[in-house]
Amino acid sequence: MTRKEIIRILAMPVVWEVHITLLQKKFRQWAEQNAGPLRTLHITTEPMNRGLVNEQYIPDPSTGFGHESECAMGQVTVWESGQMEYEVVNIETEELILWKYIEQIQEDNPDFDKLLHVYFQVLQTGVNP
Question: What is the pLDDT of residue 128?
């Protein structure tokens, strides 16, 4: 997949459905609130496209956001079931430099700053620590 194709996919608009869980809502609010501060670090934030799908018919709906810096791009997805996944790709090499899957977010009020600290560190540097 080329950089242009990745950017096009990450830039697609998203349609928010009415059916959204509390965890998804907290994640979406956190992501939207952090978009401004991330811009100061030269990281853009875009909601991931879920198309015109009515999520009430999806067994485990998700909410996702894509991010891009000068050297890397990534995405974070949180599912209704409490699972989370994130990944970062180096733009120049197209190499997957970070991938993490969390089976279950345990906290009622998850600390997304803490959960995604390494993700944003790799996104800024383009290398896995």
Answer: 85
pTM of this prediction? 0.78
Instruction: Determine the structural domain holding residue 64 and report its residue range.
Output: 3-125
Contact between residue 5 and residue 12 where contact means Cβ atoms under 8 Å apart: no
**Residue length of the chain:** 129
Residue indicated by tokens 């050297």: 71
C-alpha to C-alpha distance for 51 and 4, rounded to whole angstroms: 20
Write the CA distances from 8 to 71, 75, 93, integer angstroms. 17, 14, 18
Token digits for 75? 């995405």
What CATH number does residue 11 fall under?
Answer: 3.10.450
Number of domain units in the chain: 1
